[in-house]
């Protein structure tokens, strides 16, 4: 990076943005993710108002791209099983292993269900098109049922090991409301 180029870091509590102004850049704006940080490259001559507009636009554009990018676990039951193994290792200390995980036709009142007695998990096909982090929440939720059958404090402690739990719950509530499915958080829990 040249000495005349300027880097600004913005932390808006739920997201980190780094704006890099370049004297060599004339008109193009690009963005990419570096870990949890959104890096936006803009011309040095751009005004603060233009910068604000382009940061928001690039954030929306990347979000759309990331949402559309298909999670591998959407393709098959075996891929769902593999994703459960990864999530168990990462968030549940490798202490839960389902006997089977499979996609099922859309459930009327649930996103997924778990039967602890035979360690089976069923995931509604309505979730095939949600962002990967939302599907991961649902899988962690169902995996936690293999340790705690009910929705007690210990169960929620396990589920909240997944860092996007509250965000995913909000996403699912919005999805259900927008589609008119009537799936509430209480209905989605089993």
Structure, explained:
The chain is α/β, with parallel strands linked by helices and 190 residues long. It is 40% helix and 21% strand. The chain has six helices and seven strands, in the order E-E-E-E-H-H-E-E-E-H-H-H-H. The strands form two sheets. It has a four-stranded mixed beta sheet, covered by helices on one side. Strands 5-7-6 form a three-stranded mixed beta sheet. Helix 2 crosses helix 3, helix 3 runs antiparallel to helix 4 (153-159) and helix 3 (132-145) packs across helix 5 (165-179). The longest helix is centred in the first third of the chain and has 21 residues, at 48-68. It is elongated and about 65 Å long. Mean pLDDT is 85; it is low at 186-190.
- What is the 3D shape? elongated
As residue ranges, the low-confidence spans are 186-190
The strands making up the biggest β-sheet line up spatially as 1-2-4-3
Write down the overall mean pLDDT. 85
Overall radius of gyration:
20 Å
What is the tally of helical segments? Answer: 6
| Residues in helix, % | 40-55%
Structural class: alpha/beta
Q: The biggest beta sheet, please?
A: 4 strands, mixed
Question: Could you spell the SSE succession in H and E letters?
Answer: EEEEHHEEEHHHH
């Amino acid at each position: 990076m040249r000495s005349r180029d300027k880097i600004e870091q913005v932390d808006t509590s739920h997201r980190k943005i780094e704006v890099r102004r370049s004297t060599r850049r004339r008109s193009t704006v690009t963005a990419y993710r570096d870990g949890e940080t959104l890096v936006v490259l803009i011309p040095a001559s751009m005004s603060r108002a233009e910068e604000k507009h382009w940061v928001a636009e690039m954030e929306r554009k990347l979000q759309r791209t990331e949402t559309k990018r298909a999670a591998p676990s959407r393709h098959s039951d075996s891929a769902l099983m593999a994703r459960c193994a990864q999530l168990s290792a990462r968030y549940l200390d490798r202490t839960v292993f389902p006997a089977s995980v499979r996609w099922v036709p859309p459930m009327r009142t649930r996103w997924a269900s778990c039967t602890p007695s035979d360690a089976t998990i069923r995931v509604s096909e309505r979730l095939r098109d949600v962002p990967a982090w939302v599907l991961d929440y649902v899988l962690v939720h169902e995996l936690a049922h293999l340790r705690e059958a009910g929705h007690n404090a210990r169960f929620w402690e396990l589920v909240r090991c997944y860092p996007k739990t509250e965000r995913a719950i909000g996403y699912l509530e919005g999805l259900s409301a927008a589609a008119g499915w009537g799936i509430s958080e209480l209905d989605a829990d089993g």
